[in-house]
Amino acid sequence: EPVAVIEQRSDSNGEELPVALATRYLPFSLPYRVILSGSVTPHEITNMANALALLLVRLHLLGFWWGDCSLSNTLFRRDADQYAAYLVDAETGEFQQSLSDGQREHDLEIALFNVAAELEDLSIAGVLHPGMDPIRASEGVIRRYRRLWKMLKEPQILDPSDRHAVEKAMRTLQDLGFAVEEVEVTAVGNKGELRFTPKLVAAGYHQSRLQSLVGITTEELQAKRLLASFDRFRGREKKPLPPIEDSARRWYFDVFLHIVNQVPVELRGRVEPAQMFHEILEHRWYLGEQAGRDLGLDHAADQYITTILPFRTDSGVNESANA
User: Which helix (H) or strand (E) holds 80?
Assistant: First the structure.
């Protein structure tokens, strides 16, 4: 997000410098080399590749040609059990009314080469997982992109006997994190099959719903997980159900903030609150599997804060700083 344009710059010798763009700092984000410099699994690399593919799809939907798609020009934030990717270098990019297939393919060719080269560098340095092939991993980004693009832009043939076929098709796109604002449904062929064509889709379906309910901004998969927690909370309320806004307010204060505020001052800021809430939910499941019964959210939060949070450095905090 741009915050300032700095003009009339000069160096110490009075030589003119180009105009500079200052952007807002993206908290809890890390470059790929930092993420991959520690112990990393092929699954995590796949998640990063998926995040990059999704970012490229979202940019292309907006009519933005990147021109230099790479891991180096991307920052990553944790998003539940995956990653969210952010473009940080748009120097070569161009906005168009819409992108042609040729422009999209050009971007994909650049991404394929850049990602493979970057992963090869890590492989030579001995950082990349031994079983990871840089070229195949890079090709995985492109395959993921093509699958997403096909689901979002190409027609689907639906079974006319299924009364919920259109609803299911829309829900599939929503599960991917896209709000379907306009679709075209037409009958085709002698069998009366339905052609379902998304006409207008927008990213951030779950983010928008969570924002409207409780006013907090998260990543897409974090929002999906928090909404699932809220839906369970509302499902346990007495009938008749109160207005959803009242339920959302109670969930926010009695569940979400109740857990987040248990973190002691010296450990705050290590993990983004929505991400931490997701991880505590995961930890609750893990502890329950070990014990053979549900031990509750408060117990899971206490265990997470004691045994996991001190060693997390999503914000770049050094765990030894508070030792």
Answer: none
Are residue 193 and residue 254 in the same domain, yes or no? no
Q: Is 217 part of a structural domain of the chain? A: no
Question: How high is the pLDDT of residue 39?
Answer: 66
Specify whether 89 is located in the same domain as 143. Answer: yes
Residue-number span of the structural domain to which 179 is assigned: 156-203
What single string gives the DSSP state of each residue in 67-116? S---STTEEEEEETTEEEEEE---TT-EE-SS--HHHHHHHHHHHHHHHH
What is the DSSP pairing of strand 20-23 with strand 2-6?
Answer: antiparallel
φ/ψ of residue 90, rounded to 5: -110, 25
Verify that 138 and 161 share a domain, yes or no. Answer: no
Cβ–Cβ under 8 Å, residues 73 and 271: no
User: What tens digit of pLDDT does each residue of 224-279 get?
Assistant: 999 999 999 999 998 899 999 999 999 999 999 999 999 999 999 899 999 999 99
